[in-house]
Amino acid sequence: MEQFNFPLLEKDDIEVRIGQCNQYGVSLLLYKNARVDMRMLDAVVGPMYWQRSHEVIGGVLYCTVGIYDVDRREWVEKTDCGTESNIEKEKGAASDSFKRACTNWGIGRELYTAPQIFVKADKCQIRERGGKPACYDSFCVEKIAYDEKSRMIRGLAIDNITTGKRCFVWSAAEP
Hints:
Elements: E1 15-22, E2 25-31, H1 34-44, E3 50-57, E4 60-69, E5 74-81, H2 89-104, E6 117-120, E7 126-129, E8 132-135, E9 139-147, E10 152-160, E11 165-171
Antiparallel strand pairs: 1-2, 2-6, 3-4, 4-5, 7-8, 9-10, 10-11
């Protein structure tokens, strides 16, 4: 089977969400959505040479993503489970398991090399809701740089869309 070299995610492929919030600021998480995975599979493998299926095992939803090996004339599969989302829990679990199975194929695996992203309170709008700090700002990746060989993130800039200002910059130390 030829080795598929999925391209590194570009800034517009990556979404940013708030992981945690406290009075000092917010931690942010980088993620990809299922449409990015489908687009990459179509572009690299071809739309007729990949498939997905879902199965509940022990009450947990698993997704299997298969890629057809033309040389061996068989499907090669990778599987992972997902978790329900707060909205449309079944759809969220299906999407999450698909994204995780695609990560097993290498799509977006570089996101696991992201630094800890913490935006200080003076760079976001933290309010109190129900006696707890909350932030409803939106964030996006402004720039991302990779070490092509290791496929690790080497630099990252995040914008706060709500305030219209850059709120996080990081660069890896040179080896």
